[in-house]
């Protein structure tokens, strides 16, 4: 419609001037539209960045009173209970969770925990003192190069099943405080004291021993 009006104008000067105004208007509209799109894009990025931020406390080490929740599988995020632990293994992988804020402390891989239920009669004296109905908890991070300890297999040097890091084949015996029984790991896995109430597991204290690898990895 705008072009029809221009074509019906008899003045030569108006015929030249009006298209210039129209071009300027279109340019302004394009500028405003691009500005609005850019603003929306930035707002979207900002929202995504905020949404991806770790919740306060999620990278803190396990705290006394934290609940233990599954870190993987179909029950991820659900509390680990006595009924979830098969006698003799295999272990389950868990994160500590603040019961007050519901924050799962999963922002640091050093917080992942191995929980296993063993026959108390198989545990050495010190390990038995720390166990709760045969249940033990250890760091899931190998003390050699910091790889995850993922396997529960028969030891290369004995007839019992042990925790094994598949990166460099370090093995740990949970019955003896997760001491190293094979491989290059320089020290045992850090142990985590546990408490059991109404069938659910919680943290009873700080890690005993250093968590993580002796070298980058």
Globular, elongated, flat, extended or rod-shaped: what is the shape? globular
Number of distinct helices: 3
How large, in whole angstroms, is the Cα Rg? Answer: 31 Å
Strand order of the largest sheet: 1-2-3-4
Q: How would you describe the overall organization of this protein?
A:
There is one protein chain. The chain has 217 residues and is of the alpha+beta class. The chain has 3 helices and 10 strands, in the order H-H-E-E-E-H-E-E-E-E-E-E-E. Strands 1-2-3-4 form a 4-stranded antiparallel β-sheet, with no helix packed on it. A 4-stranded antiparallel β-sheet has the order 5-6-7-8, with no helix packed on it. The N and C termini lie far apart (70 Å).
In brief:
With 217 residues, the protein is α+β, with helices and mostly antiparallel strands.
Give the SSE map.
Blueprint: H1 2-7, H2 12-52, E1 67-70, E2 92-97, E3 113-117, H3 125-130, E4 135-139, E5 151-154, E6 161-164, E7 171-173, E8 179-182, E9 194-197, E10 200-203
Antiparallel strand pairs: 1-2, 2-3, 3-4, 5-6, 6-7, 7-8, 9-10
Spell out the key features of this protein:
single chain; 217 residues; alpha+beta; four-stranded antiparallel sheet; 10 strands; 20% strand; globular; disordered N terminus
